[in-house]
C-alpha cells in the first residue's frame, strides 16, 4: 500500500509529461492546436483517475471486510452478567441501604482475590467513606454494587435484596455512579450532564451542576451550558471533568450515589508541601 500510491502518482505524472512532450512536438509542426492538447490532457486525467480509484477499491474492500468482522465480533459478545430468572423489583419497599455479606471477589484470571470475606453495611441516609491505599480494592467494592462484576463469594444486598435478583435495568437506574476515570463525550456541557438522565430539564441540569460545584466554571465558558466539550473532554481540566461527571450522576436523582475517588481534585486553598 505504501508503495502503491507514489507509484501510481509517478505513472500519472509521466503520462502527463509524455502527452505534453508529444503534443508539443505536433503543435510545433502545425499538425495540432493548443486547445486540442488541453482537451486531450483533460480526458487523459479523467481516465487515469478512474483507474486509480478502481485500484484503490481493491485495497479498501478487504480492509473494510476485516474491520467489519471485528465490529461484528464485538457486537456478538454475550454479556456475562444477565438478569437471573427469579428477578424481583422489591428495591423500593425496604430501606436498608447497601450490605456486603462475607463478600469475596477475584478478577478473572487474577492470582489472588481482590476482596476476601468483606462485610459491612452502608446505611440509608448516611455517607459511607471507604479509605485505602492504591490497589486496596476501593473501586472493586463499588463495581460490585451495580453488578459491573459479580461476586465470587458472599452477597451484595441493596435494601435487603441480593443484587443478582434485581433486574439490571432497575438496579442501575437507582444508582448514580461516578467512575474513577470519567469520560466526557463530544457535545455540549448540557448534553454531557444530561447523559445521566435524558429527561432532565434545563433547571435540573443547572441544579446538579451547582451541587457538583461545576456551575461557576460553566458560566465562565464562552457559551455557558452550550459550550462544546471536545472529544474525551480535552478542553476541560481534570477537576472540571470530575465535577461534570458528578453532576451527571446527580441529575439521575438516584437512591444510591457511588463516588469513586471523586474528591481528589477537591483541594480548596493552596496546597502545602
Ligand atoms: N480489571 C481488573 N483485572 C484484574 N485485576 C484488577 C482489575 N482491576 C483491579 N484489579 C486489581 O484489584 C486490586 C484492587 O484494585 P482497585 O479496586 O482498582 O483498587 P483501588 O480503587 O482501591 O485503587 C488491585 O490489586 C488491582 O491490581
Ligand atoms: Mg480506584
UniProtKB/TrEMBL annotation:
<protein>
    <submittedName>
        <fullName>Lipid A export ATP-binding/permease protein MsbA</fullName>
    </submittedName>
</protein>
<dbReference type="InterPro" id="IPR036640">
    <property type="entry name" value="ABC1_TM_sf"/>
</dbReference>
<dbReference type="InterPro" id="IPR039421">
    <property type="entry name" value="Type_1_exporter"/>
</dbReference>
<dbReference type="InterPro" id="IPR017871">
    <property type="entry name" value="ABC_transporter-like_CS"/>
</dbReference>
<dbReference type="InterPro" id="IPR003439">
    <property type="entry name" value="ABC_transporter-like_ATP-bd"/>
</dbReference>
<dbReference type="GO" id="GO:0005886">
    <property type="term" value="C:plasma membrane"/>
</dbReference>
<feature type="transmembrane region" description="Helical">
    <location>
        <begin position="40"/>
        <end position="61"/>
    </location>
</feature>
<dbReference type="GO" id="GO:0005524">
    <property type="term" value="F:ATP binding"/>
</dbReference>
<keyword id="KW-0472">Membrane</keyword>
<dbReference type="Pfam" id="PF00005">
    <property type="entry name" value="ABC_tran"/>
</dbReference>
<keyword id="KW-0812">Transmembrane</keyword>
<feature type="domain" description="ABC transporter">
    <location>
        <begin position="98"/>
        <end position="271"/>
    </location>
</feature>
<feature type="domain" description="ABC transmembrane type-1">
    <location>
        <begin position="2"/>
        <end position="63"/>
    </location>
</feature>
<keyword id="KW-1133">Transmembrane helix</keyword>
<keyword id="KW-0067">ATP-binding</keyword>
<dbReference type="GO" id="GO:0016887">
    <property type="term" value="F:ATP hydrolysis activity"/>
</dbReference>
<dbReference type="InterPro" id="IPR027417">
    <property type="entry name" value="P-loop_NTPase"/>
</dbReference>
<keyword id="KW-0547">Nucleotide-binding</keyword>
<dbReference type="InterPro" id="IPR011527">
    <property type="entry name" value="ABC1_TM_dom"/>
</dbReference>
<dbReference type="GO" id="GO:0140359">
    <property type="term" value="F:ABC-type transporter activity"/>
</dbReference>
Amino acid at each position: 500500500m505504501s508503495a502503491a500510491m507514489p507509484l501510481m502518482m509517478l505513472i500519472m505524472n509521466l503520462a502527463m509529461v509524455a502527452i505534453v512532450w508529444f503534443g508539443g512536438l505536433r503543435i510545433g509542426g502545425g499538425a495540432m492546436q493548443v486547445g486540442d492538447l488541453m482537451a486531450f490532457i483533460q480526458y487523459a486525467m479523467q481516465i487515469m483517475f478512474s483507474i486509480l480509484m478502481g485500484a484503490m477499491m481493491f485495497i479498501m474492500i478487504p480492509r473494510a471486510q476485516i474491520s467489519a468482522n471485528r465490529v461484528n465480533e464485538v457486537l456478538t459478545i454475550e454479556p456475562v452478567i444477565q438478569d437471573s430468572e427469579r428477578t424481583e423489583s422489591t428495591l423500593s419497599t425496604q430501606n436498608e441501604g447497601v450490605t456486603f455479606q462475607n463478600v469475596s471477589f477475584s478478577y478473572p484470571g487474577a492470582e489472588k482475590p481482590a476482596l476476601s470475606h468483606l462485610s459491612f453495611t452502608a446505611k440509608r441516609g448516611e455517607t459511607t467513606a471507604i479509605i485505602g491505599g492504591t490497589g486496596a480494592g476501593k473501586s472493586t467494592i463499588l463495581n460490585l454494587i451495580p453488578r459491573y462484576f459479580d461476586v465470587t463469594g458472599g452477597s451484595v444486598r441493596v435494601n435487603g435484596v441480593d443484587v443478582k435478583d434485581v433486574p439490571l435495568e432497575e438496579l442501575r437506574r437507582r444508582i448514580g455512579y461516578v467512575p474513577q476515570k470519567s469520560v466526557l463525550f463530544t457535545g455540549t456541557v448540557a448534553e454531557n450532564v444530561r447523559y445521566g438522565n435524558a429527561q432532565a430539564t434545563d433547571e435540573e441540569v443547572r441544579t446538579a451542576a451547582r451541587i457538583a460545584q461545576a456551575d461557576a466554571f460553566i458560566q465562565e465558558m464562552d457559551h455557558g451550558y452550550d459550550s462544546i466539550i471536545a472529544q474525551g473532554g480535552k478542553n476541560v481540566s481534570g477537576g472540571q471533568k470530575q465535577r461534570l461527571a458528578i453532576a451527571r450522576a446527580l441529575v439521575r436523582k438516584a437512591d444510591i450515589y457511588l463516588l469513586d475517588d471523586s474528591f481528589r481534585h477537591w483541594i480548596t486553598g493552596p496546597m502545602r508541601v
